């Protein structure tokens, strides 16, 4: 009887070890695939926001990590990817967060040229209501393209709001909170960029060893 129990215990133990090994193998294999997909998505977004013909560095591997909860919406470090031509600044793509979406945080990237003109905005992740707040997603609506070519100045700062708040950006029928959060996030990101542009482009590269993308 004792031998049978011991044998069964050994079998169960071996089964647990094998199962754990398979789970770990699957996890790390999946993580690698997820990272590869994330990097390919990043590369595609960079290409959308900054023309490849305008810079000669590997933008996906040239970045700095910054933290500004006041202007970038989170205490988590955010990436700023830098485009340069012959070593001179051309544009940057800044990760930022709208912390006050209707259904929580909205993760964005904001492309800006050297003179702080918006080259594009993309929503990376959100949990906004389908059919209402999800119009911030370019796959659903072209609303986000309204930022293209915009600048933030002292003279037009009051226009950086949704129309309901006296600004120039459309809100969505039945969903004002979501576009308001995105507009504010983009505006704050531009303030951060204008204030820190020289530091952003002079700081040491922190992405060279983080990415395997070949641009």
User: How would you sum up the global shape?
Assistant: globular
The span between the termini is: 66 Å
> Structural class of the secondary structure composition?
alpha+beta
Please summarize the sheet with the most strands. Answer: 5 strands, antiparallel
Sheet with the most strands: spatial strand order = 1-2-3-4-5
Q: Total strand count, please?
A: 5
The oligomeric status of these chains comes to: single chain
Overall pLDDT score: 86
Helix content, binned percent: 25-40%
Which regions contain 5 or more consecutive residues with pLDDT less than 50?
209-215
Strand composition percent: 15-25%
Topology:
Layout: H1 2-49, E1 63-66, H2 69-72, E2 78-85, E3 88-101, E4 104-113, E5 118-125, H3 177-202
Antiparallel strand pairs: 1-2, 2-3, 3-4, 4-5
Protein model, in words:
The structure is a single chain. With 215 residues, the protein is α+β, with helices and mostly antiparallel strands. It is 36% helix and 20% strand. The chain contains 3 helices and 5 strands, in the order αβαββββα. It has helices spanning 2-49, 69-72, 177-202, and strands at residues 63-66, 78-85, 88-101, 104-113, 118-125. It has a 5-stranded antiparallel β-sheet. The longest helix is centred in the first third of the chain and has 48 residues, at 2-49. The radius of gyration is 23 Å and the shape is globular. Keywords: Cell inner membrane, Cell membrane, Electron transport, Flavoprotein, FMN, Membrane, Phosphoprotein, Translocase, Transmembrane, Transmembrane helix, Transport. Its main location: membrane. It is found in: Cell inner membrane. The chain crosses the membrane at residues 9-29. The complex is composed of six subunits: RnfA, RnfB, RnfC, RnfD, RnfE and RnfG.
